[in-house]
Amino acid sequence: MKPRQQQMFFWIVALAALILILLLLRDVLLPFVAGMAIAYFLDPVADRLETIGLSRLWATLVIVMSFVVMFVVFVIVLVPILVQQLSGLGANLPGYISSLQQMITEQGQGWLSDVFGIEVTQFSGSIQNLVQKATDWLGGLLTSIWSGGIAFVSFLALFIVTPVVAFYMLYDWDRMVAKIDSWLPRDHVAIVRQLAAEIDVAIAGFVRGQGTVCLILGTFYAIGLTVIGLNFGLLIGLVAGLISFVPYVGSTLGLVVAGIVAVVQFWPEWIPIASVLGVFIFGQFAEGNFLSPKMVGSSVGLHPVWLMFALFAFAYLFGFVGMLLAVPLAAAIGVLSRFSLQQYLASDIYTGMSDDD
């Protein structure tokens, strides 16, 4: 076997072993993957603190303790409210949809038939079928994610292990990177470093940049909808912001749910309904023109369709752990795919020419 073939065989075996390990240990990986993600997210903050004179140890302690305090405050203050609103929204959403359907039926007796050529009874039946299918699908997805990860990991263990893992990973991050770099094959170290740098830019741009954008949008949506007085506004706003990492999905889903609740709650007063719409329009304007260009940039290279496929595929295969790994792995696969395409376009296989020609 030639050296190049040996290298290829080695990396294929290593990739297969990694996938096998993830499949076998997916039920216990959540605290460790979450800790690693937190460490990666906060590593630039630790580097910044080091530049102002703190040691790596003290920088790590300050960051992790601050993160733990904010997380505890979030759990104590917001989680009970969010759980209550989630329970209320789940119980009341079918009623909201029925009320909206009744309003459309009463208001649209004539124009539904004239414009779309359908009867009101047909429209009502279609809405009911669509809502039922969407509910079943969402329930199945959440059940799959839950059974794939969280159900087998104690919440107490998650809350204890994750900060410990984050602390050690953040403290040893630079040394781990240097150690991994020393293991790279020397003949290809330049190319591997280049690809690793591109992967890091893509992941950092998305995880750090887009993660910050999602937090800002979630906070803005939650405060805006709550100030308007929308029922379950805190929950709808936070969820809409946090899932905005998939372009248009978070804002669209939030707008649809908030719109249904707003119409049923405020009709016929149009000002609060228009205000709910304005919150999402302003949020999207700010994201597209200020937040994303400033914090994310154009170097991420993750197509929305590819990102959605990766999220669903990894969530299906590895549960909640898969969702955490989806973005880094999707970014890495994207960079490696573009590199492979460049190699192919420059090869004899594509050009049809060989060195002997």
Describe this structure in words.
The chain has 357 residues and is mainly alpha-helical. The protein is built from 14 helices and no strands. Helix 2 packs across helix 13 and helix 10 packs antiparallel against helix 11.
What descriptive keywords fit this protein?
357 residues; globular; 14 helices; mainly alpha; single chain; 83% helix
Number of alpha- plus pi-helical segments: 14
Q: Give the uncertain stretches in residue-range form.
A: 148-153
How do the helices and strands follow one another from N- to C-terminus?
HHHHHHHHHHHHHH
Question: How far is the first residue's CA from the last residue's CA?
Answer: 26 Å
Number of domains: 1
The helical percent reads over 70%
